[in-house]
Write a structure and sequence with these properties.
Elements (H helix, E strand, L loop, with lengths): L2 E7 L3 H12 L4 E5 L24 H15 L2 E4 L2 E7 L2 E6 L4 E9 L3 E3 L4 H7 L3 E3 L2 H4 L7 E5 L3 H11 L4 E5 L11 E4 L3 E3 L29 E3 L11 H19 L1
Parallel strand pairs: 1-2, 1-6, 2-3, 6-13, 8-11, 9-10, 9-11
Antiparallel strand pairs: 4-5, 5-6, 7-12
Helix pairs in contact: 1-2, 1-6
The structure holds flavin-adenine dinucleotide.
Length: 256
């Protein structure tokens, strides 16, 4: 099995930026991604606050950063990391089907994922379709009744968007019963960190975010964190990229 200097878990903007920094520092770098590169921003059609690229799409930005990382020598692979174990010389990442990857240093960059429905509402929804993105899936329910669950701005935007497509859009809160006739449930009740497998590995705060300061060092030697899964005040593309730069640089320093 090839052993890497640095394995980065998650190919969002934070993880891919960390790869650029670590590989430019002369390290062998692998980025593991469970789904598609780009993470949360992938479905956004126009980004207005990424410096130097007014209106770039999430796909466009992702493609550019990934190409840059690959051109510089970073490797990418697809695997959902389920567990990380300490070994004699570093860390072993264990994926589905017991697939293993080894590195001296780990950078955790798993970001966040949509919060799921409560047990009660999930039972209520039964076999009905569940979506976390009206722009992605709304068109599937043309002239059919749907429901949006959530109380914040995202839920309001999803409701307004779906009103142009569905025959009826119910907008309910996270405790309300799901209307019987709705064929699809659009869930917009916030996000949670994708840190399930980190419990017992590094210190987490009460909401599951990995505790680290601006140096992106976790409670465990040789494990760094970058992006939205870290405790921080502002979760945005530029702060994810900034964390990636710091974590990549700290990893180089740690490896010496
Ligand atoms: C709809 C929407 C629009 C947004 N618009 C903007 C905007 O216009 N401007 C802006 O600045 N910010 C915006 N944001 C916020 C921005 O997208 C995030 O702050 C940023 O993408 C976070 O990047 P990240 O790399 O930390 O995490 P993510 O983007 O969450 O990436 C994490 C990656 O890790 C992968 N992963 C997770 N767990 C595992 C695992 N166990 N094994 C392997 N891989 C794993 C995920 O699949 C994902 O690809 C938006 C967010 C959303 C949801």
């Amino acid at each position: 099995m090839k052993k890497y200097d640095v394995i980065i878990v998650g190919a969002g903007i934070a993880g891919m930026t960390a790869a650029i920094y670590a590989v430019r520092g002369g390290k062998e770098v692998l980025v593991l991604e469970s789904r598609v590169e780009g993470g949360q921003i992938i479905n956004t059609t126009s980004i207005e606050n990424w410096p130097g690229e007014l209106g770039i799409s999430g796909v466009g930005l992702t493609r550019k950063i990934k190409e840059q990382a690959e051109e510089l020598g970073a490797e990418f692979d697809y695997a959902e990391v389920k567990k990380i174990e300490k070994n004699a010389n570093g860390w072993t990442m264990i994926g589905e089907d017991d697939e293993k990857f080894e590195a001296s240093v780990v950078i955790l960059a798993m970001g966040t994922e949509p919060r799921k429905l409560s047990k009660k509402q999930a039972a209520d929804a039964g076999e009905r379709a569940i979506s976390y993105c009206a722009t992605c899936d709304g068109a599937l329910y043309k002239n059919r009744p749907v429901v949006v669950v959530g109380s914040g701005n995202t839920a309001k935007h999803e409701t307004a968007y779906l009103k142009n497509i569905a025959s009826k859009v119910y907008h309910i809160h996270h405790d309300d019963p799901i209307p019987k006739d709705a064929v699809a449930v659009f869930v917009a009740i916030g996000r949670v960190p994708s840190t399930n497998f980190c419990d017992g590995l590094v210190e987490l705060d009460e909401n599951g975010y990995i505790i680290a300061g601006e140096d992106c060092r976790t409670s465990e030697e040789g494990i760094f964190v970058s992006g939205d899964c870290r405790t921080k005040n502002l979760r945005q593309l530029v702060t994810a990229a900034a964390d990636g730069a710091i974590a990549g640089t700290e990893a180089i320093k740690y490896l010496g």
